[in-house]
Request: fold
Amino acid sequence: MSSESVLHFFMFYGAVFSVIIALGQFVQKKIVTINKLYAVSFFGLGIWLLQICIYSSGLFDSSAIGYYVSIASIPVIFIVPPLMVMRYTWIITSLFDVKKIYYIVLLPSIISLFYLLVPLFIKGISCGSACFPGLPLLSDRFYELSLYDKGVYLLFIIPNIYLITFMLPNLITMAYVWNKKKWNTVPGVSRMGYIFALSIVVSNAICVYGAFVSLHVVEWAVIIANTAMTFVYLVTQRHPDYNKLLKSEAMKARYERSRIKGLDIQQIIQRLYEIMEDEKAFADEELSLPDLAKELNISAHQLSEILNEHIQKNFNTFVNEFRVKEAQKLLLEEPDRSILSIGVAVGFNSNTTFCTVFSKMTGMSPKQYRKEYGKK
Reply:
């Protein structure tokens, strides 16, 4: 077996291993959201590695199979970077909340899909396996390609840049694990997690560099990524609570930098509930985090931290729960009152927002709720 064959084996091994890791998440006794996120991100990583292997190894040059697998995987690959970052964000913040704004990460995937479908709708633009030789972007052959084909090649590189951009803030946030003053209090597993995150960024940076100058560099970038992934897998086997350990240490470090040290948290929470329940502050449709913090004589940042760390809710969820609870009461106590009037009375600025939030929290619309429980 030649050295080149061995190299290709270890390259493609990573793609297969990623999929196996992903499938392993679905055989857990208790599957939670983070397991699903973990599985999807590693499944996408496996597809991504497969594409890079096909592109850089040259094994499928001018091959219809290699071309279509690589092209079809591009929209999927664009979802991988934000998913991996979301996982690390969960580890660092200890809260996993899929906010609506997260869906914006799907835009690059959708845009790339539309770009790849262009040849189907515009005459004169075509691309196929013959247009897909593995070549670096600074080569003469690349400049000979059509403008559209050059765009396709760039779609292979942009996800790497996308991931680097997403991951760097996480590396900065997690840098506390290398604080020598706390060397004895931070477990080695936390540093291993950091090394894995760092290896992701490094291997992607090398991959971007190789895509411009030499595909052999890309091959070694894949080997680095596969080695790091195998290393982390072995760590998780030795430490089954790997994610929990990382999260625990991140929480400790965050507490040390906390803005609420020295405050009487329980007294603030008690006063917070008095303002909401007795004074019905939630009924003000213009109620904001700074307004509520001012009532408590603390800063908006301090209130936000208390809500997230001690009540386990963000500001909007916390306030809307009081609004919905009051609306439930009014819907039954005042059966002749309009739903719009009740929504405004509890603090919602529009009937659409009221019905949307109410349905999300109760599983039924205000009208259905009144009909269902009004009789009882």
User: Anything to note?
Assistant: The chain has 17 helices and no strands. Residues 147-173 form the longest helix (27 residues). Residues 265-374 form a domain with the Arc Repressor Mutant, subunit A fold (CATH 1.10.10.60).
